């Protein structure tokens, strides 16, 4: 399933946050995602869309709702 | 009650998150849903609409509000 | 106070979640509502509108904000 | 400060939730408001607008943001 | 930095909540702000805009996001 | 990656909160950011956009979602 280009979804690719995350995806960097639940998840981001981020973490694919994210550390 | 096709409801089926969840529904895969309350629910997703996800779990149907979901693990 | 028909309020009655809850109201089924606070409320749903759900529980009428609901179990 | 009529502010007075709360205000009924923080506040509602509810409780006026309300028990 | 008049920002000054807070600002009243985190902050409100409130508290200026406020006690 | 000027992103630079944060960025002031999770983060703000704030903290760049911020102390 090739990720649709950003223009087909509502992401504003001018935003520094979206540009930063697209850079993290391109570089396949390892990140830490802290959730509002207190969970700390480590892995690589596959894609981001208007509502979610897909994180590849120890063999599982997590669809994480952005509203549950506190921060991404890279 | 046959699930209305996505076009009758506001889901953007171009989004990778919606396409991924529609795939999970078609494949009737078992998933784990982590809520912002800390609850971890296991079951099969019946449908998704603009606000909620229906999870079939140990004989109960849960209407889960998307705003309460942290992530779906599949 | 007769509940106004859905068309006078903004509910999208095509959504599976709204159709499911309207079914629960018609059948006067007992439900469990889990809140993001961790509270678990049992009772019968009187009505649902754009922002709230009214639950009849042990003689009290609770106006529950939908943003505080994690899930409804029926 | 006479409370502006609902039409000057964005409240949809057709919604059962708004009609119920306006009834509670007219009847000056004592209510319990449960917040998402777990706080339980008792008092009388002075007014409701698009974002907040004003509760008169033991001599203090609380401006409560609706996003922090789990439910109102009356 | 003189606070821009409300008309330059999106505040609806007809809302009782905004009128109440503008009154608190004019009177330089001491208030208590309870956050959804459970924090209780005391101080004087400098300004309010569409998203935030500025609280002057023991020599610090806090920019508080309204989404994190449970209530203001005055 | 030079931060796009505010006009290319949706920030309302008339808002006192945005003007205050742009001032903090220009002055490279050290701030404390309290999250709704209870986390307290110290560092310097690199940029702010419609959804996030970038904080430079002990060698890491955190992309913090504004919805997770309770307040900024400066």
Automatic annotation (TrEMBL), chains A, B, C, D, E, F:
Location of the Hfq-related domain: 15-74
Family matches, as Gene3D superfamilies: 2.30.30.100
InterPro entries on file: Hfq_1, LSM_dom_sf
NCBIfam families: Hfq_rel_Cyano (NF047718)
Protein name listed in UniProt: RNA chaperone Hfq
Organism, scientific name: Pseudanabaena cinerea FACHB-1277
